[in-house]
Specification:
301 residues; alpha/beta; D-Maltodextrin-Binding Protein, domain 2; LysR_HTH_N; transcription; LysR_subst-bd
């Protein structure tokens, strides 16, 4: 339904070359160039910087591209909903952070699909800012994230209150302690999430609040994947600072040890975030109820 020139814009932005975009679209190179020129005339802005190398989007081109992606996502969503209305099916695209990926969220969503025949869920894992962007662009229906978004187009429903802990192997000498101090952590090899992760940011902010710095700790490895970090901890190759919810299954089965850190409070919310135009509010309540039920089964309610 949308102007075919918009598809041309998306391909040119992706390929950064008229000829490569033309091949992907089964058009001639002059036709692709003409599409872009027509768009520039209609919008009154220049979309690309043309030179000897790859094409580069202008700042105005970046803005146009962002809205075109949103329009394409909306068109796809409309087509899916019209198709599903006739077949009585529902699809949900739900984004989760890497921390949430290692919590009970995936299990809750799987139970939701089992209890609601005809509903299918696609899970997308990414960092929190990318998930917010996808929500705003209607590329996702929901997202499970740590903390609250300040973006005005997004709303949130709190699933849980979580907190960061120090995670150790059960064979670690400190595993039988009731807590761990920062001085003790300073003596250990740390395997941490990447600096831009919500977990890492929260840890460093808590340190800064009491005049401490991550530079004074022995960070030997930075890993984005929480499952990999937990596997390395089990092998006693280091300790880490993780969300307790990300270790819930291992803690319940006695595979890892989690200790509170003396004088360091790192609580945070886990939220179900959605665009304010999301129409199926009953779905939010159903997922929340299942999440609470799962917490009770894990002994955390």
């Amino acid at each position: 339904m949308l102007d075919p020139k918009l598809d041309t814009l998306l391909l040119v932005a992706e390929k950064r070359n008229f000829t490569r975009a033309a091949q992907a679209l089964s058009l001639t190179q002059p036709a692709v160039s003409h599409h872009i020129s027509q768009l520039e005339q209609e919008l009154g802005v220049r979309l690309f910087v043309r030179g000897n190398g790859d094409l580069m989007l202008t700042p105005e081109g970046e803005t146009v591209l962002r809205y075109v992606r949103r329009m394409k996502a909306l068109e796809k969503k409309m087509a899916e909903e019209l198709q599903e209305a006739g077949r009585r099916l529902t699809r949900l695209r739900i984004g989760i952070t890497h921390t949430a990926e290692s919590s009970i969220v995936a299990e809750v969503l799987a139970r939701y699909t089992n209890e609601n025949p005809g509903i299918s869920i696609t899970i997308v894992t990414d960092n929190i800012n990318n998930l917010y962007d996808m929500l705003e662009n209607f590329e996702l229906d929901l997202a499970v994230v740590e903390g609250r978004s300040t973006r005005p187009e997004l709303s949130a429903l709190m699933l849980d209150t979580d907190y960061l802990v120090c995670v150790l192997a059960n064979t670690h000498p400190l595993s039988h302690s009731s807590m761990i101090t920062l001085d003790e952590i300073r003596q250990e090899k740390l395997i941490l999430r990447l600096p831009n992760s919500e977990t890492r940011v929260r840890f460093e902010s808590a340190l800064a609040a009491i005049g401490e710095s991550i530079a004074d700790f022995q960070v030997i490895l930075e890993v984005d994947n929480v499952a990999t970090i937990k596997d390395l901890i089990r092998k006693n190759l280091g300790i880490s600072i993780l969300a307790r919810s990300a270790c819930m299954d291992e803690l319940r089965k006695g595979k890892l040890t989690a200790l509170p850190i003396e004088n360091l409070s790192m609580t945070r919310e886990t939220n179900l975030v959605y665009h304010r135009d999301f129409a199926h509010k009953e779905t939010l309540q159903d997922i929340l109820a299942l999440y609470k039920k799962q917490l009770r089964e894990y002994g955390r309610a």
